[in-house]
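User: Please predict the structure of the protein below. I'd like the answer in structure-token form so I can feed it into my own downstream comparison script.

Assistant: Understood. Taking the following sequence of 232 residues as input:
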Amino acid sequence: MSLVIAAATVYQREAYTSPGMTLRFEALIRLLERRLEEASLPGAEAQIRMAPVRNGALERLEVRNRSCREAGVLMMLLPVEDAPHVVLTIRRDHLSQHAGQVSFPGGRREAGEPLLQTALREAQEEVDLLPGDVEVIGEMTPLFIPPSNYCVYPFLGFTRQRPVLRPHDFEVDRIVELPLSLLLEDSAVRRERWTVRGEEVLVPFFDVAGLQIWGATAMMLAELVALARDDE
């Protein structure tokens, strides 16, 4: 873990190491570029594995023909000692929605704004990542989030040099650089019954590095994991 100083405030920038499998950054980027050039992505088939189950039925993920708010998010990869890490944020505890949850940099689309521009703008606002530093691989599978009525459009990008990131938004408490290899381990996924908005729900989540990553973030990560495994 290292400390980053910004605006006279000391922030935590957490980078975890993985004792498990070896995953090389450049090899992964080449794999992901090839997979995103193919005709289809793992898509909802991968995402739905991490979808909370309510009343025995899975939420529908399809964004087509939805009257919804739109958001762009950046699924960002960077190298830490040649190991690919995913950039995640932890939201501040005082927020009225999703307090303390793990998420990707991202937010609501502004009028007339391309969704990729939304993802890059939000990443700059939240973690001080310059859009020009990001190499975009492509768009991942969008998904619909019923509780918030958002259609979320994720974009996959990377930097070959590890940038200095800073929490730069009132919503972001911490930045986490998580080894992708941790998410690939069989023990990474757990399932528990939680009470969510007053309803008992079976929730799958990634339980890694002291974090519980669930909901839309976990569902998007599930597609990335499927691509990285190259066996879906």
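That's the full token string. The two ends are 33 Å apart (CA to CA).
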